[in-house]
Amino acid sequence: MRTQEQYLERLAKMKKNIFLGGEKIGRDDPRVVHASSAIRMTFELAENPEFESLLTATSHITGEKINRFTHIHQSTDDLLKKQELTRKLCHIAGGCIQRCMGCDMLNGISVTTKNVDLKHGTNYHENFLKFAKYFQENDLVGAGSQTDAKGDRLARPSEQWDPDQYLHVVERRDDGVVVRGAKLHNTMAPYADELIVVPTRMMGKDEGDWAIAFAIPADTEGVTLIAKEAFTRQREDNLKSPMSNIGDLECMTVFDDVFVPNERIFLNGETRFAGELALGFALFHRHSYTGCKPGIGDVLTGVTALLAEYNNTLKVEHVKGKLVDMICVAELVYAAGMAAAYKSTKAPSGTQVPNVIYANVGRRHAGHAIYHEAEILCDIAGGLAVTLPDSKEYNNPEIGKYVQKYVTRKEGVSPENCYRAYALAEDFLASELGATFLVAGVHGGGSPIMEDIAIWGTYDINKNINLAKNLAGIKD
Amino acid sequence: MRTQEQYLERLAKMKKNIFLGGEKIGRDDPRVVHASSAIRMTFELAENPEFESLLTATSHITGEKINRFTHIHQSTDDLLKKQELTRKLCHIAGGCIQRCMGCDMLNGISVTTKNVDLKHGTNYHENFLKFAKYFQENDLVGAGSQTDAKGDRLARPSEQWDPDQYLHVVERRDDGVVVRGAKLHNTMAPYADELIVVPTRMMGKDEGDWAIAFAIPADTEGVTLIAKEAFTRQREDNLKSPMSNIGDLECMTVFDDVFVPNERIFLNGETRFAGELALGFALFHRHSYTGCKPGIGDVLTGVTALLAEYNNTLKVEHVKGKLVDMICVAELVYAAGMAAAYKSTKAPSGTQVPNVIYANVGRRHAGHAIYHEAEILCDIAGGLAVTLPDSKEYNNPEIGKYVQKYVTRKEGVSPENCYRAYALAEDFLASELGATFLVAGVHGGGSPIMEDIAIWGTYDINKNINLAKNLAGIKD
Amino acid sequence: MRTQEQYLERLAKMKKNIFLGGEKIGRDDPRVVHASSAIRMTFELAENPEFESLLTATSHITGEKINRFTHIHQSTDDLLKKQELTRKLCHIAGGCIQRCMGCDMLNGISVTTKNVDLKHGTNYHENFLKFAKYFQENDLVGAGSQTDAKGDRLARPSEQWDPDQYLHVVERRDDGVVVRGAKLHNTMAPYADELIVVPTRMMGKDEGDWAIAFAIPADTEGVTLIAKEAFTRQREDNLKSPMSNIGDLECMTVFDDVFVPNERIFLNGETRFAGELALGFALFHRHSYTGCKPGIGDVLTGVTALLAEYNNTLKVEHVKGKLVDMICVAELVYAAGMAAAYKSTKAPSGTQVPNVIYANVGRRHAGHAIYHEAEILCDIAGGLAVTLPDSKEYNNPEIGKYVQKYVTRKEGVSPENCYRAYALAEDFLASELGATFLVAGVHGGGSPIMEDIAIWGTYDINKNINLAKNLAGIKD
Amino acid sequence: MRTQEQYLERLAKMKKNIFLGGEKIGRDDPRVVHASSAIRMTFELAENPEFESLLTATSHITGEKINRFTHIHQSTDDLLKKQELTRKLCHIAGGCIQRCMGCDMLNGISVTTKNVDLKHGTNYHENFLKFAKYFQENDLVGAGSQTDAKGDRLARPSEQWDPDQYLHVVERRDDGVVVRGAKLHNTMAPYADELIVVPTRMMGKDEGDWAIAFAIPADTEGVTLIAKEAFTRQREDNLKSPMSNIGDLECMTVFDDVFVPNERIFLNGETRFAGELALGFALFHRHSYTGCKPGIGDVLTGVTALLAEYNNTLKVEHVKGKLVDMICVAELVYAAGMAAAYKSTKAPSGTQVPNVIYANVGRRHAGHAIYHEAEILCDIAGGLAVTLPDSKEYNNPEIGKYVQKYVTRKEGVSPENCYRAYALAEDFLASELGATFLVAGVHGGGSPIMEDIAIWGTYDINKNINLAKNLAGIKD
């Protein structure tokens, strides 16, 4: 297992292929390092006794102690621990912990590679196990790369005016394949060691070139990472906070004729399994959301309650009612994730798979609620969430006293603490990072409408219809 | 364990003290027998191999096999089984299974009697165990009697213009107490063997006379049961359905100077525990709701989907979306109940107690959703839910053919099946029983605002505030 | 203009063709008379000085003073008065005023008959004017008959397995046509003088037989009215209330080869206008809903507030908040109706036509809110809405005292008044009439999804797209 | 009437008293000029024939043609024009038009000064008329300054630990008063000519020093403007858009012992009228919101529809349904504003006052909906709203081609237009200005809970209670 320093050192050695703010930059760029704070936490806390039992696991491949974010879940307990771990880390990170995506990708691939092999006599699961062993032993960070550009949303991959709108194989060689396309919304790819790529949807029988899954180092020849930064508001040093250190780089990851060697391929043309793999990753990822969404919800509830406390409105009935609303969102989503773990099943690969209905029901509820949670924070915080004077004004020798005097709320709370509380609300409601949390809250891991589809596709509605028929006295 | 015949025979022998429709009736009145159908099912299915493992348990008092509805939960598994059992029985009953209330009351009392004894050196838990043994051995049915009339809702029990608005002790004797008051919304009391009575709220130090809990036979001298019937629409025989056999009697249970012997008293003046007992019963009952609300939700989803199938609209996007909405309500509530079981704890009495937050979060979500579920059924069913001609018209030799012709929907479904499907929708949307399900869905076991209060009172909001303070860099 | 006695007398003379409760009955049956109470009010109050200016108008055909429910709107003021009138009558009727439907039908037909004539050189508008004159002079009551049985909802009228699932012409004669089919959810048809029939949807070019509109007396040969009653709960005489007198008969109106003479035909095969007429009636009817839904909403708000007052919870924050919710629904819907009137336009026929967007937006908001309004009433009323003992128990010499004692709420309000308040809540939440209000609130005049379609079909979304393009600097 | 150049010139001559980004700046600072774009539009378009009739009015004081934003409404038509004007300007400004606030303040003051004079024989209305004449003749821009810092929200102004938490008089002189305090969320104050100050709430009898209203130039001695900028994302020149020119400066306006001469005082100690004035301004401002919220809603609907068009999902049922949701919000709010105008009344001052219920119902609906509208835009736009590569990457000679290729959606829409559409979504969902729109959408003009209070305080709930009593047969 690595330290965060080792993680950063390895990144620094990688080939420059990131573009940000008009420049081509290396992974030692301060913005990349800043954005990696949540990931670094997953290394740092693995040594912390409070987190060790959650953050580490025993590899089912090597029997070694590994970081849980590289683990293939073997039991209900593994799933419960992943969920709990995610919630707790989000409490400290103030938002997305970012490293779950690669882990969820590995787990999804573990299941489908086995299933493809069983059906087609292929060798993908061996490829997977070899890769997973390497990943675990080197304590790597993987970026799950799934969402294609998609072009015309009513056209299938093979029907697009530009076939690259979905990533696909453009050349087949004895030693591997060459792929072209792009993966969008590729969170944290700029500070990942590996890119783990899977299809974004079901494929038709004639769409074998689009049914491709693989993993490659993030600085592979032909890969370009077009990054987009999302940070909190800048503050002067004396008003910086742990939240100031949080950040995120989103990414448009372009594959311009990238070679993928055979041993790194996990699916290649077995169209029937493209959808299974797409949904398989989504399932593990939605289960992760039943940990992180409550975690972020807890934080949003906390910011809201903190401002209510400082304004002295924590006892007001409608304020309490709105806080209970937020609590209930978090706990319902968490309960759904627990249920998904308790009702999980074992795949042929041995991987423990969360229950589809509960994982989706939980993620969907979170997705439907996130803007409402922001609305409540906005409601209770009041206008200062956007009108708070900048920290430069706070520190201004001429008029800083005014800022300090008029942001202060109830007696006994210092101006600085009041300012810090409002600044935190501003970070959530009015910073680029806050906006990213909201959009990710809706779309990350699949928008609510995708969960609708997953639930409707899995749920046995005929059982309910039969309950009704029995009660109605209908005999078919 | 009794058969349903034995249950009815015992009822028939009880003293007449029920009033219904202007008459004083016995428990062999056909309306009472009709309404008891759900209870009877709990006897009948106990012998059914499919239900036996759910419907029976081993008494922790006697070690004997007992009906689970008389059991004191000893483990997480007991709580999970109660939840699952409740959902499954509701599938068959088409609604409230009714017998959980007495069971939840016993469990609540098991916990508090022990706690009072530990604090005050009293003997209530022995009373309880003796009563529970008798209850289990005779496989009895108990009506949980909690909600007082309450009078002026802003006045405390001792401040009421009429002190009887909350049931209280009016006389103390060596061998027991005499009580006066009424318990409202006392579902199924007319076909219960025993009334189990607890306070409805917290009591102040000077409200010892209102801090009273006990159990007595339902035909005890001084007890009057003023019943109110709720049945589905009447249908002619050939169009009757299992749903036609379902019913409910609600009850205003009046205690006009009723003597309660010492051995049947579970709380008597220890005001500090009145609230614990009120909430304790509510907690077990809210956990039961995490089983029955999904059960009823499954049925409502089934009726809705059945009508969509017959109308040939089951593939229409907004119809599917609304069905998914209903599915998600049921599964989120069920997940919360599972979480409450998995996060349950053992009370000093040995009783397994569901987690307060999860049980309340689940019940609350169900309570907020029930009218919306009815709205969806109404939306998909269309106007026939209230304009469906009566079964007499269906059977009319002159114009029955018209009814049959014009209630028929897609080809291949018989007129009778179409009629039956709409009749079932009508039972839910436009019968007295359907109305009772809606109102009970909001208020039964405590209205959503009561869950708000329970959640706010239990949840540690300071933990969230501290998360926010940490992120904001606030050091107190 | 007629008195209510004259109205009833004319009904009594009509041929028996109503079926209810297994019998064939005349229009002097007590249930028919009971159900006609709202209609009767429209005659009675026309003489009341307070209502006269609203309830009467000047015929644009004859210049005579007529009942406004027979009037063809000629101005914005006419539309505003219709809306205000409807709201005020609903306050007294406690629900649907029922007579607007025929009026809305006349107005819709006035517009389309002219448009068809202008396009096809037909003579329908003359037919219409002749009929309208007769209707006004005799102060008639018309039942708008629109909704067909519809069979398979994904099949067009001409594709149905049974062609009668949509009413259509089965024979064409020199002097008229013969029609077959049924109109469902045909509110108040059993106590209407005339049936006014229009298509329920757009028709294809080959569906000329289904593009038929006409008016005939309700007891025409071949017409059968299969009625369905919806009344409030029965109460003993001393507890009857104005609400006890309210009722409704819904109807399945069957046309089994009914002859319609040429002069009563308003559309016959001009398929292109079938949809216009269907939507035209709907438009006037949705505008009526912007009057009645606020009216019923005012009543529901009143019942809720009354119970809060009696329980002494009218000052509690969440109670006030919920009442404000209800107020806002009513006033937003009413405002939309006012806007529809102020933005109305004149059709070629001279009829004043409400704005499509505002009428639909208003009706849709009401439709989405009605179950939520019931939920709030249920929430504030509490369980007694379904557990209230019957009036026979209230009057029982032995135990009536208990009922009276324990339904009483705050000091100073008599037991009878408390009982009456709860009984009213029960009428809305748990009677057949209350259920009908809810279902009609969703579906009457077109379910919310129909308003979605009307709004989307009318609204110029490209104007909004162009606003966005301008702001984005997009030049096509 | 001024040109925008004259407006800017006058600003440039004002004394430097603005602080922004750590500096003390003048009103010719580019950020101030940038932020004033919406205000400048109100000068520029007054000469545009399309807007002239809306943007100008005839002064009731001088009879001269004036900018409508300086007008005192004299008729229903004035109110309707203000509403329509506001909506149309927001279409072009892409958001808040900013100049309504000063206008609403003038109108509120016109009413209350007259009422105070009538009651107390004071001279405030003359002060007002003189100021209004000067304001109109010089075509000035006023910043409405109302919201105090408020400190402890449960303490009254006179009970605060710091009396300056509400602005108040600290010294009384013969020629005027000296005031101290601050007004927060003081939108556009940095580019206003005048500050118009009123109380933020009702005052108690002993709070005369807080019952103070006046107008002074924004650069008066002792006034400090602590500004906070809110702009859209920065783009390179070739990708700038009209939206790039929009902006806003919020402000904490500090009054540190500022002298106000007698002739500029509109209220001074008449505590009973402090609340009237606070609510009076709010009423006019909430009516303005019934114009601007639909205007911004139209734009949000447009951005959403534009992205759906480019993605080719404009025909998908759930997308249409969500767009209809947005349309309905805008039109319901607009209808409420129209109703407020049509039901307006004339105050003793001659000012036309919108109906309180309708103005509040409309504003409240908008406030409850704004986050939901953003959610829909986010839902339909997808993740690119936050992951869109920066314009520098779009223009990058090495990898710009990738950005252009993979942001392109359906065939036939250029990469630039696709990019521009997503950039606009980003401006709304993920820029500081977008965040300001959301927070202002909730709180501007009073949060929804303030409208609850205004509605509850105005609405005659007893009328509804009496409707219910009549129906229940209750005679008091």
Secondary-structure map:
The structure is a homotetramer of 476-residue chains.
Chain A: H1 4-13, E1 18-20, E2 23-25, H2 30-35, H3 37-44, H4 49-55, E3 56-58, E4 65-67, H5 76-93, H6 100-120, H7 124-137, E5 142-145, E6 168-173, E7 176-183, E8 194-197, E9 212-217, E10 223-231, E11 247-261, E12 265-268, H8 274-311, H9 317-342, E13 345-346, E14 352-353, H10 356-381, H11 384-387, H12 391-395, H13 400-407, H14 415-430, H15 432-443, H16 448-458, H17 461-472
Parallel strand pairs in A: 1-10, 5-8
Antiparallel strand pairs in A: 1-2, 3-4, 6-7, 7-11, 8-9, 9-12, 10-11, 13-14
Helix pairs in contact in A: 1-3, 5-8, 5-9, 6-7, 6-8, 8-9, 8-10, 8-14, 9-10, 10-14, 10-15, 10-16, 13-14, 14-15
Could you characterize the architecture of this molecule?
The structure is a homotetramer of 476-residue chains. Chain A has 476 residues and is of the alpha+beta class. The first copy, chain A, has a domain at 276-467: Butyryl-CoA Dehydrogenase, subunit A, domain 3, CATH 1.20.140. The first copy, chain A, contains 17 helices and 14 strands. A 6-stranded mixed β-sheet of chain A has the order 2-1-10-11-7-6. In chain A, strands 5-8-9-12 form a 4-stranded mixed β-sheet. In chain A, a hairpin with a 2-residue loop joins β6 and β7. In chain A, α8 (274-311) packs parallel to α10 (356-381) and α14 (415-430) packs across α15. The longest helix of chain A has 38 residues, at 274-311. The radius of gyration of chain A is 23 Å and the shape is globular. Chains in contact: A-B, A-C, A-D, B-C, B-D, C-D. At the A-D interface, β10, β11, α10, α11 and α12 of A face β10, β11, α10, α11 and α12 of D.
